[in-house]
Amino acid sequence: MAKKTGRYSGYIRPFSYCIDLLSINVLSFVLLPSVFHTLLHTVFISLAWVIIATNIGFYEVYRYTKVVAILNKLLKQFALFTILCFAFSGWYTKYSESQVILYFTIAAISLVALIKLFIYYFLRKFRVLFGGNFRQVVIVGNGKSVDQLQEFFNDNPDYGYKLVRVFDFKVEKEEQINEYFSFVLSTQIDEIYCSLADLNSNQINEFIDFTDNNLKILKFLPDTKEVFSRNLSYDYYDYIPVISMRNIPLDETINKILKRTFDIIFSLLVILGVLSWLIPILALFIKVETKGPVFFKQKRNGLNYKEFYCYKFRSMEPNALADLHQVTKGDTRITKVGRFIRKTSIDELPQFFNVLLGEMSVVGPRPHMVSHTEMYARSIDKFMVRHFIKPGITGLAQTKGFRGEVENDKDIIFRVKYDIFYLENWSILLDLKIVFLTLYNAIKGEAKAY
């Protein structure tokens, strides 16, 4: 199974957030009087900046974003940030010299603008001069839109797209499509751009299924046809409209930060509040009943199909089939202690160490053992889509009854459907709901917890 190639850099936005927040806070100490030099003011302007930026998409600047769009975002950020700064001054400090506050916000947005535009143009030069931060792409189809996009990619290397090949359609489309798929896999293409004018509904679905199952990015050049999907989003490369078939909320930096913060806080609470005293007690019971390690580790596939060791309390007698055969009802390998900790899901608690290390999340698609992942990737449609986000200790599918043993195709098919719904509709409230339902089900007891 082909692994997913590189995605958009995950470091640019966090760096931008940090440098901007540092800039406005340094300027507040330099330009504003001492009455503003308080922790409350620092927290206020930092939160105000982040909240405004999140709502107006201030940091949603991509390689194809126009400078005029960046300037528009800067103007909105400046206006709203200035209003909130004045509101804080009038409410908290009763400071009367409003021009000083205005000087501060003008200086802040000017410095941020310089940094933002420097990064934007630096990356464009970096791509041209050093060949870094590039995406390998192919275009499929004929017609005017294909020619325009081809010209765009060739004339604008600073945008960071390397056009590897353009595939045109002739007579035997089905044979050609299979050839194109083989080429994409063999050359590690990152993105596929398809002209909708050259594809019927079945062929569109073929491309969607192929990219989903091989972790490739698919985008369409629209025509008069309608495309029915869950989260379509439009982007413009110069003036060429491009459709993205899947919008994943956790691709957004602020959402990543929110989820990671939740994961760290929740995992530390469990590790310090529960595992600190539970591990010695369970270790004693596990060791008394059977010889072997206290913890069981197994290779699983995580974000972008990367392998990692998933940890559990050992619930079975040591055996050579642990990495090959999933536990079934009445499995004789399960110990007495193991039966209890599996029934109550206590065996999963060591995975909070995986969460703290960043290999897993508290909530997400449940990871499968490597051998099962490879099997399902070949037989279950869209199974690989689950690897666009980190795996979780619990997930939406588990709260809907699809946990534990996969008894038939229905179990894994519905598990995949719920996982895809989760990654396309993520919110922090959904995570909290899933955690609550998981705790409730663990206390109530579940039929498939064995």
UniProtKB/TrEMBL annotation:
Domain Bacterial sugar transferase: 259-443
Gene Ontology CC terms, in alphabetical order: membrane
Gene Ontology MF terms in the entry: phosphotransferase activity, for other substituted phosphate groups
Keywords: Membrane, Transferase, Transmembrane, Transmembrane helix
Topology versus the membrane: Multi-pass membrane protein
A Pfam family it matches: CoA_binding_3
Location(s) in or outside the cell: Membrane
Keyword match Nucleus: no
Membrane-spanning intervals of the chain: 12-32, 38-62, 74-94, 100-123, 264-286
PANTHER family found in the cross-reference section: COLANIC BIOSYNTHESIS UDP-GLUCOSE LIPID CARRIER TRANSFERASE, UNDECAPRENYL-PHOSPHATE N-ACETYLGALACTOSAMINYL 1-PHOSPHATE TRANSFERASE-RELATED
Family according to the record: Belongs to the bacterial sugar transferase family.
Protein name listed in UniProt: Undecaprenyl-phosphate glucose phosphotransferase
